[in-house]
């Protein structure tokens, strides 16, 4: 017994995995020693390692920092693999960590759902490129696009550990919280783009007022300097937003309906910009 669990001097906090591995090795030694005396002691390691495994999983899953659900999913996968490496069936342990994981994911969604400021661009910003800089720096860079997709991937990863009779490991409330966070960012960006385009088209001459190629050329140059074409055409922002909304549109109830309304607004932006751009280009190339 003393060989399996030697006396140890006080020490600092160990890495959770190192501690679990050390406990697993000592329990293996203990089980081997006991089964040599009494074969009925086989399985003692599994019995004693279960609460230690749960403590390890709770510590890692409760403390691992993450900014994206994909990162948390990798932590969950690592915990499962480490448990199996120590001879522990991972699914029952993960099932007991379900509430902990859901609480962390709900808090993540709450942080994401903070109110996103999306004031309309100033009149001069719509033409000089500042609206683009604000969009990329303040709205797009922080957007949690793909979080719902990552959550569904994590749910699939945990499917074998789902509660009895449940169709998924994670609850609908967690899925809804993440979807709402993603929708709030989409709404802020689409609202900003709509305001930007509306002001831009009001500041530029209407295509039917372009009486010469020179007028059309000047209007085209001003349109390019606004960087709205760069964002929507070269960088494909409207296509990206449409793809993100596509998954959200399939959600049931109000969430799906909200996503479909945003898709309609996005389509209006695309159509208005496309129509104006085509008309300017036609006059620019006219003989």
Distance between the termini: 97 Å
Number of helices: 13
Rg to the nearest angstrom? 28 Å
The outline comes out as elongated
What are the SSEs and their pairings?
Blueprint: H1 16-37, H2 44-63, H3 69-85, H4 90-96, H5 98-112, H6 125-128, H7 130-140, H8 147-157, H9 172-203, H10 213-226, H11 228-234, H12 237-249, H13 253-285
Description:
This protein is an all-alpha fold. The chain is 72% helix and 0% strand. It has helices spanning 16-37, 44-63, 69-85, 90-96, 98-112, 125-128, 130-140, 147-157, 172-203, 213-226, 228-234, 237-249, 253-285. Helix 2 (44-63) packs antiparallel against helix 3, helix 3 packs parallel to helix 8 (147-157) and helix 10 packs antiparallel against helix 13. It is elongated and about 100 Å long.
Descriptive labels:
elongated; mainly alpha; 287 residues; 13 helices
Q: Quick summary of this structure?
A:
The protein has 287 residues and is an all-alpha fold. The chain has helices at 16-37, 44-63, 69-85, 90-96, 98-112, 125-128, 130-140, 147-157, 172-203, 213-226, 228-234, 237-249, 253-285.
């Amino acid at each position: 017994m003393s060989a399996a669990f030697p006396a140890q001097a006080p020490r600092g906090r160990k890495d959770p995995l190192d501690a679990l591995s050390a406990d697993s090795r000592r329990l293996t030694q203990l089980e081997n020693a006991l089964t040599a005396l009494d074969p009925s002691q086989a399985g003692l390691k599994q019995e004693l390692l279960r609460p230690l495994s749960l403590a390890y999983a709770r510590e890692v899953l409760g403390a691992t920092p993450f900014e994206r659900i994909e990162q948390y999913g990798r932590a969950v996968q690592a915990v499962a693999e480490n448990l199996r490496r120590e001879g522990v069936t991972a699914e029952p342990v993960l099932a007991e960590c379900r509430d902990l994981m859901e609480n962390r994911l709900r808090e993540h969604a709450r942080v994401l759902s903070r109110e996103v400021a999306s004031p309309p661009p100033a009149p001069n910003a719509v033409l000089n490129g500042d609206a683009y800089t604000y969009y990329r720096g303040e709205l797009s860079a922080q957007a949690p696009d793909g979080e719902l997709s990552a959550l569904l991937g994590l749910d699939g990863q945990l499917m074998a550990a789902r509660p009895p009779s449940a169709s998924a490991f994670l609850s609908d409330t967690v899925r809804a919280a993440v979807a709402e966070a993603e929708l709030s960012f989409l709404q802020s960006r689409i609202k900003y783009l709509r305001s930007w385009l509306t002001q831009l088209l009001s500041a530029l001459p209407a295509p039917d007022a372009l009486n010469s190629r020179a007028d059309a050329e000047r209007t085209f140059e001003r349109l390019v300097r606004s960087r709205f074409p760069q964002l929507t055409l070269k960088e494909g922002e409207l296509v990206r937003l449409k793809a993100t909304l596509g998954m959200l549109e399939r959600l049931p109830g109000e969430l799906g309906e909200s996503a479909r309304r945003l898709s309609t607004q996005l389509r209006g932006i695309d159509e208005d910009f496309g129509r104006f751009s085509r008309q300017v280009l036609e006059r620019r190339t006219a003989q």
